[in-house]
Amino acid sequence: MGIEPAVVFVHGMRTSSAIWDRQLEHVRDAGYDAVAVDLPAHGERRDERFTLPGAFDVIDDAVATFAADRPIALVGLSLGGYTTLAYAARDAALHQAGATREPTRLAGVVAAACCSDPKGKPVALFRDVAHVTVAGASAARRQARAASARWRAALRGQGSRAGGSDVAALLGGTVAVGPFRPGWDVVTDALTHLAGHSSVADVRAARVPVWLVNGSRDHLRLQEQRHLAAAYQGALVVVPGAGHDVNTDAPDAFNRVLTRALRDFRRP
């Protein structure tokens, strides 16, 4: 039968762990132990600033709640997807360098809605939009509109039909997350940490199976084939009719994919 992994869910930008309620119910009903975390600057951690090392600490704390010999599956959406891929790359680097003698606990990663490499121009331009929007003045808003136009043009140059929904996608979609919704300062912090950081390189560095899951209507599926080709062992699933928030746009379809992925991550 093999050893079933425990599951750690990591949400997208400007949302919270609440987006995973349907997935938590699904995997727990199937017998998996699972937890959904709040990243820094989100949910219960809303008073913190977002940093990638801080996000890694959150995942480390979640992993530590399970038995020391339990394999771990990471499931991330958008910002959470980029974070889990970077975490998997760091895990592989630590083991390769001999920084830890313990075998890796990571069994696999489901990375959703994160197949546009942040190292490219679109994310850097969108970070500029966030910076000037945080400033708040009318002149800053004019700069934001100009930067947003450059951002959409950059996306079109990479084969995407960019539109207003692309902006909402990078912000983390429109899923209700309760009375608190992080502002643009979170976007600035997150994109500052992501810009120049290659998700394709992270997929290549990770030495575990990586399942890439995208909604067919997600305009940010710019480089899904590059990500798939980089994987040590990978799969790509495109969910028909879903947008960037694929797990909430099509929860039943996403849960079916999740079931398949977790079976693939099972250890002998």
Note down, in words, how this protein is organized.
It is a single chain. 47% of the residues lie in helices and 13% in strands. A six-stranded parallel beta sheet has the order 2-1-3-4-5-6, sandwiched between helices. Strand 1, helix 1 and strand 2 form a beta-alpha-beta unit. The longest helix is centred in the middle third of the chain and has 20 residues, at 138-157. Residues 137-141 and 160-180 have low confidence and may be disordered. The protein contains eleven helices and six strands. It has two domains: 6-117 and 198-265, 3-Layer(aba) Sandwich (Rossmann fold); 121-191, no CATH class. The protein is of the alpha/beta class and 268 residues long. This is Pimeloyl-ACP methyl ester carboxylesterase. GO terms for molecular function: catalytic activity. Residues 7-256 form the AB hydrolase-1 domain. It comes from Xylanimonas ulmi. InterPro entries: AB_hydrolase_1, AB_hydrolase_fold.
Short description:
The protein is of the alpha/beta class and 268 residues long. The chain has eleven helices and six strands. The chain folds into two domains: 180 residues, Rossmann fold; 71 residues, no CATH class.
Helices and strands, with pairings:
Blueprint: E1 6-10, H1 21-29, E2 34-37, H2 52-63, E3 72-77, H3 79-96, E4 106-112, H4 121-135, H5 138-157, H6 164-171, H7 184-194, H8 199-205, E5 209-215, H9 224-230, E6 233-239, H10 246-249, H11 251-265
Parallel strand pairs: 1-2, 1-3, 3-4, 4-5, 5-6
GO molecular function: catalytic activity
Pfam family, one: Abhydrolase_6
Protein name: Pimeloyl-ACP methyl ester carboxylesterase
